[in-house]
């Protein structure tokens, strides 16, 4: 499997994170400039932003939770040469679940839908880790 094929889903996940960061920053600056929020109200990290900005902010911060395990897995799979077509397909499935999760977060924010997207992604990632672990063990034992 080519390195590009393995890394393309990672690039999309990183792009999602950067887009959310820029959107959050822009929204926060706009709110501060409009005087809707005062710096003293958020200086120590208080969550005094308007609901819309909190949605974007939460979607952004979520990209530093479960996706971190995805990044580590991709690096390990590349390093051990265990990334194959199944790995790439599952990577795309995981990243798609993250895109859906973020889209729900910044639109309707319907918790039941958001939770479903989250669980789907976690299950995909867990299966990826299990497959990877089994492949590494099999290689070590010569099976």
Describe the protein in words.
By secondary structure, the protein is mostly helical. Helix content is 80%, strand content 0%. The protein contains 6 helices and no strands. It has helices at residues 3-33, 39-42, 51-62, 66-80, 85-106, 111-141. Helix 1 (3-33) runs antiparallel to helix 3 and helix 1 (3-33) packs antiparallel against helix 4. The chain is elongated and about 65 Å long. The two termini are 21 Å apart. The model has no long low-confidence stretch (mean pLDDT 96).
Describe the sheet with the most strands: none
Task: Note the run of SSEs as H and E.
Answer: HHHHHH
The number of helices is 6
Which value, in Å, is the CA radius of gyration? 18 Å
| Structural class computed from helices and strand pairing | mainly alpha
Q: In percent, how helical is the residue content?
A: over 70%
First-residue to last-residue Cα separation: 21 Å
Strand % is under 5%
Taken from the alpha-carbon principal axes, the silhouette is elongated
Mean pLDDT: 96
Query: What are the low-pLDDT stretches, counting only 5+ consecutive residues below 50?
Result: none
What would you call the quaternary organization?
A: single chain
Question: How many β-strand stretches?
Answer: 0
């Amino acid at each position: 499997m080519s390195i590009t094929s393995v890394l393309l889903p990672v690039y999309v996940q990183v792009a999602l994170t950067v887009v959310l960061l820029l959107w959050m920053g822009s929204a926060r600056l706009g709110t501060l400039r409009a005087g809707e929020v005062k710096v003293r109200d958020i200086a120590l990290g208080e969550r005094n932003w308007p609901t819309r900005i909190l949605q974007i902010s939460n979607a952004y911060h979520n990209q530093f939770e479960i996706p971190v395990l995805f990044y580590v897995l991709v690096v390990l799979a590349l390093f051990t040469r265990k990334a194959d077509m199944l790995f790439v397909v599952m990577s795309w499935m995981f990243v798609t679940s993250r895109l859906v999760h973020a889209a729900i977060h910044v639109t309707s924010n319907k918790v039941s839908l958001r939770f479903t997207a989250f669980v789907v992604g976690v299950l995909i990632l867990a299966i990826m880790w299990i497959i990877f672990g089994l492949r590494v063990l099999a290689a070590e034992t010569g099976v």
